Amino acid sequence: MSLRVLSRLDTARTQYYHFKAITIAGLGLFADACYLFCIPPIMKLIGHIYYKSHNNRIQPAVESSMLAATLLGTAIGQLIFGRLGDRVGRRGVYGVALIFMMVGSIACGFSLGTTPGCVLASLGFFRFLVGVGIGGDYPLSATIMSEYANKRTRGAFIAAVFSMQGFGILVSSVVTMAVCKTFGRIYHRSPEDPPKEADIAWRLILMLGVIPAVITYYRRMKMPETARYTALVEQNVLQAARDMERVLDVPLSQITEDHIFPPSPPPYPLFSRKFFLRHGRDLLACSATWFLLDIVFYSSNLFQFEIFHKYLLDEGVTALDATFKVALLQAVVACYSTIPGYFAAVFLIDRVGRVKLQAAGFFFMAIVYFSMGVPDNKYWKGPRHMLFIFLYGLTFFFANCGPNTTTFIVPAELFPARFRTTCHGIAGAMGKVGAIFGAVGFSKTWQALGMRVTFIIFGGICMAGMAVTLLFARETMGRSLEENENEDESVQ
């Protein structure tokens, strides 16, 4: 059954409501990145304040646990909010995810304790709450944008939403640098005596992340429910047309049906035999590629200061100076690699296709990792260290131009409307399991086997991601969401 309102959404020209939806959904991803990727410089600052007996460095196991707490919350949030998005509605729980982020962000600034362990334990708990909100934002933002977009430029619109993560990383880094410079100019202390005010600085940085979430919350509450959820899940076709009348700027008569279709029961439930026959391969492909990608992506992102440690750390810097350098590194990588990668994805996604772009991204990531890992460590001494830094940044370019973006897009296009956020949440949660595995496991691998071996392993994981993509992924470019559902009635 082809409904007029859905057909009109698929063929609508690009107009104001598309950009409005991109902005509202994208600001959530912007806030996600601010929360998620501010932690490396924060850990540097906390290390100088509480771990002076360990050369100003938090023990790797403790740092990994802090990272894993947020990622675990993200995985749980993706599963919970993904399911609620299909049961309650996209709009119904869209603001709740932001509430988790806002409350958790403010609470992080009030992490309490009389010992470093107590401070980090409370911070870890509040970061877990932030992670739950971040996780909820993933399936809801991707699905809402996919259900608002037309089929010709749907990939570019969802990629544009996801690209806001890059700007979130950049702004988070700039805010961190600004706070560090401001506090550094006001309070002048020696490296051996980190200022007490530095303890206020990291709390302030975390709490400032609430600002984009507050701005986004109001706008999200003004959005109507998506027509696809109202028409296909709630089976209220007339209400879907009324909601879209103002959005599409067309008379109601052009998008309402001539006949009222009686509600029909769903043909099969979630996780039934028929569900797995029709969608099991798609769910496997989305989950496996996201899992493999996040092992590499989050390991590289969250431990990038370790990668550049030998080039950036000067003896005798203050706590605020050291944190400034970590944030500066993140900002530089975001400018020359991360954000351009997102822009390339927006430009290419509806021209090249999801499968080709994802496979190519994995392939070139593997080539770059092998290029960094195969040469001996002595090779990167002296002037060649700048080449090493450039190659390292390229991994983020190819990730964001390829699998980091496509793994976010494809699950929002493949599955039926009544399962869409659930399946996106499952795939995303598998990705965050991979991220936890990378954040915890590869911190130990890094210490035990060294940088070269770790990069070679990363290259192998990327090749595995390319293989899974080519073997199991299905192209969704240029088709309506209803065509992509693959509702083959011959499957029993």
Automatic annotation (TrEMBL):
<feature type="transmembrane region" description="Helical">
    <location>
        <begin position="200"/>
        <end position="218"/>
    </location>
</feature>
<feature type="transmembrane region" description="Helical">
    <location>
        <begin position="323"/>
        <end position="348"/>
    </location>
</feature>
<feature type="transmembrane region" description="Helical">
    <location>
        <begin position="283"/>
        <end position="303"/>
    </location>
</feature>
<dbReference type="InterPro" id="IPR005828">
    <property type="entry name" value="MFS_sugar_transport-like"/>
</dbReference>
<dbReference type="GO" id="GO:0015293">
    <property type="term" value="F:symporter activity"/>
</dbReference>
<dbReference type="Pfam" id="PF00083">
    <property type="entry name" value="Sugar_tr"/>
</dbReference>
<keyword id="KW-0812">Transmembrane</keyword>
<keyword id="KW-0472">Membrane</keyword>
<feature type="transmembrane region" description="Helical">
    <location>
        <begin position="157"/>
        <end position="180"/>
    </location>
</feature>
<dbReference type="InterPro" id="IPR005829">
    <property type="entry name" value="Sugar_transporter_CS"/>
</dbReference>
<protein>
    <submittedName>
        <fullName>Probable inorganic phosphate transporter 1-8</fullName>
    </submittedName>
</protein>
<feature type="domain" description="Major facilitator superfamily (MFS) profile">
    <location>
        <begin position="21"/>
        <end position="477"/>
    </location>
</feature>
<feature type="transmembrane region" description="Helical">
    <location>
        <begin position="93"/>
        <end position="113"/>
    </location>
</feature>
<feature type="transmembrane region" description="Helical">
    <location>
        <begin position="119"/>
        <end position="136"/>
    </location>
</feature>
<feature type="transmembrane region" description="Helical">
    <location>
        <begin position="449"/>
        <end position="473"/>
    </location>
</feature>
<feature type="transmembrane region" description="Helical">
    <location>
        <begin position="21"/>
        <end position="42"/>
    </location>
</feature>
<feature type="transmembrane region" description="Helical">
    <location>
        <begin position="422"/>
        <end position="443"/>
    </location>
</feature>
<dbReference type="InterPro" id="IPR036259">
    <property type="entry name" value="MFS_trans_sf"/>
</dbReference>
<dbReference type="GO" id="GO:0016020">
    <property type="term" value="C:membrane"/>
</dbReference>
<dbReference type="GO" id="GO:0006817">
    <property type="term" value="P:phosphate ion transport"/>
</dbReference>
<feature type="transmembrane region" description="Helical">
    <location>
        <begin position="355"/>
        <end position="374"/>
    </location>
</feature>
<dbReference type="InterPro" id="IPR020846">
    <property type="entry name" value="MFS_dom"/>
</dbReference>
<feature type="transmembrane region" description="Helical">
    <location>
        <begin position="386"/>
        <end position="410"/>
    </location>
</feature>
<feature type="transmembrane region" description="Helical">
    <location>
        <begin position="62"/>
        <end position="81"/>
    </location>
</feature>
<keyword id="KW-1133">Transmembrane helix</keyword>
<keyword id="KW-0813">Transport</keyword>
